[in-house]
Amino acid sequence: MTHVLDPNALADPSGGTGAPPDPFADVTRSNDAFRAFLHGLPGVDQVGAEARAKVLGTRSIKTTAKAWAIDTAISMVDLTTLEGADTPGKVRSLAAKARRPDPTDPACPAVAAVCVYGDLAGVAKEALAGTGINVAAVATAFPSGRASREVKLADVRDAVANGADEIDMVIDRGAFLTGRYLDVFEEIVAVKEACGPAHLKVILETGELVTLDAVRRASWLAMLAGGDFIKTSTGKVSPAATLPVCLVMLEAVRDFRAATGRQVGVKPAGGIRTTKDAVKHLVLINETVGADWLSPDWFRFGASSLLNDLLLQRQKLRTGHYSGPDHVSVD
Amino acid sequence: MTSLFEYAPAPESRSIVDIRPSYGLFVDGEFTDGTGTPLKTVNPATEEVLSEVATGSDADVDRAVRAARRAFVKVWGPMRPADRGKYLFRIARLLQERAREFAVLETLDNGKPIRESRDVDVPLAAAHFFYHAGWADKLEHAGLGPAPRPLGVAGQVIPWNFPLLMLAWKIAPALATGNTVVLKPAETTPLTALLFAEICQQADLPPGVVNIVTGAGETGRAVISHPDVDKVAFTGSTEVGRAIARAVAGTEKRLTLELGGKAANIVFDDAPIDQAVEGIVRGIFFNQGHVCCAGSRLLVQESVHDDVVAALQRRIGTLRVGDPMDKNTDLGAINSAEQLARIRELTAFGETEGATCWQPDGDLPDRGFWFKPTVFTDVSPAHRIARDEVFGPVLSVLTFRTPDEAVAKANNTTYGLSAGIWSEKGSRILKVTDQLRAGVVWANTFNEFDPTSPFGGYKQSGYGREGGRQGLAAYLRSDS
Questions:
Q1: Which of residues 412-441 of B touch A (CB under 8 A)?
Q2: Whole-prediction pTM value?
Q3: Per-residue pLDDT tens over the stretch B246-261
Q4: DSSP string of B157-182?
Q5: CATH number of A42-320
Q6: Nearest chain B Cα to A45, which residue?
Q7: Count of CB pairs separated by less than 8 Å, A with B
Q8: Which residue, A67, A9, A75, is CA-closest to A297?
Q9: Are A223 and A252 in contact (CB under 8 A)?
Q10: What are the boundaries of the region Disordered (chain A) (predicted)?
């Protein structure tokens, strides 16, 4: 899925006869070279990034802008259930909600995808047949990622075989934190290959990477390895998605596109529960990377409870008054 | 590239503030008529006349100084320091309680975005009163001698860029140290000072402790040259500061001056670029660039110049210029027609001198005083736009190759109020900071203010410090 949106960003020395060469092919020739490249990326000043995210969080989004934002946010939701207790019934019920989030209003958009464990991808696929809503499956020994590469790849192949359109993988944080960047890179490359036609979302688990410098490096690593999306968190580690982390990841996809011509999506996941939070993220996109990323093709919310708050706020805009939690379905 | 995401207007309501058709002077705890010709104050975003404000004549100023002297001798001077602190705490709390009112009024009168008056000016003004309230009964522990005593009556003249905040910077330390005050606000922005007078009444501050005399230059001259004023404090232009220094010379009066600046904001090649760009924007476009410590000279290391300028232009493209009352506005109106003319004159110089002028696309409102955020590249230290204080949203970009060159260029100015350094390397920050001749040096940030931190300049940026322990010294007699 290579979208060359900025034709000027990359010169094509082959004279237009073939695909442009990867300008970063050389940086992964050894772990030392890769380390030098990743550590040579511009630093992130944590205080400054937090301040910027905070200021953008104070934008006042009202009336038409709010209505547009709510519908856009709904269309970007990866409606998620990742519990050990998940059953086919629960997944089918979630699929029904994904197709028609607000039964009282057919104009309400559907969500982007339903996100489940790999073994339930088949159930979701069947329940969503013909809707255009994707099935996303978490794989690669989610959420810890602590398994051998063979097991992880088998996990991915299994989920794809079950019908997953999108694979959400976790990176090996242990390898990343010990500086074995090339191992992490190669694993993502292998997973991408195992995905076949399925899109690959690479979960950085930023809560375990801790620093924003590490978030920027991991973002570049995942993009260079071929990830179609970079995703903040599994939702199983706190802190999960935060605005400063999302800001740094957006800057990374912006800079990566400028350097390679390839656009990569961003998915914050975990901890985004309210319409206000979702709107803050849209403002962050709008003022960091612009309208090119304001679509479910390039931005997703990994969330379970966010959708209901979006629906309640949407009903409020429509009717002029707030309704209670029983005016939206539990799942 | 237009965004699908157009923010709908989100105007702050002005109904919270009740602007009277006319205002008098605040002398001896009461509003009284002024004997000078009243002046009109306008909303710079719309040119609407907001109110008519009295002008203090020499006689009015004399009345105010005599009231201040009386209050100093009879009430405020002898008062237990802890009680003075209580008044200051009360004022600080009232400022917080009426914060929205002050923010709206400040934005109407000054033209600055409500986002800044609401999130910066008013909270900082309250913070200054809180901070100084804490000092009121601890002055003997400030390291300024065992028993420092107040000077007496302070004559204070403040500018139009931060009307309420500069008032707080002046009045809070003066009162905390036991002085009384005659303050003259700027002629284009008197309204929040007059609302502050109401706060003084509400706080039951003894009459005469704070007097506010509005007017233009003549009134200010009367305040600073009044023979019974013991201390003069001025924030404003270097030109006026020089005149004040001359007027005060040879008298017993103490003097502090906070004047102009042409701050260097130095970006090294190892800087966190995205945050540096934010800092550059904050440095020069905060408050429409009407900031004496604005980072108006950007010094970029040549190896990252193109990247930084490209990122800066992309970022400026997202700045929202327009109605200051809209909560989403980033850049408001220029404070007066006069200031706008000066900005235009200086930017015209930039182009004739051969610098490259860049402004983002987009329209400005039809009415009011407006100027687009502007970046000059290819600027040389010999250009006037690299030397003169524009006091507007105009940035000059210069380059350097080595840290020594950066320091030499940064210090090559007649001013010395502030500077900024952007680098990931702590040792470089410390070394360069040491070599810069500037009162404040920000590292990986810009335009951060805190009442605990002293603020003031080198060279033609003035003398004396405001804020922190050092700021107290300007209002105290430390000889025993």
A1: 424
A2: 0.94
A3: 999 999 999 999 999 9
A4: E--SSSHHHHHHHHHHHHHHTT-EEE
A5: 3.20.20.70
A6: B272
A7: 77
A8: A75
A9: yes
A10: 1-26
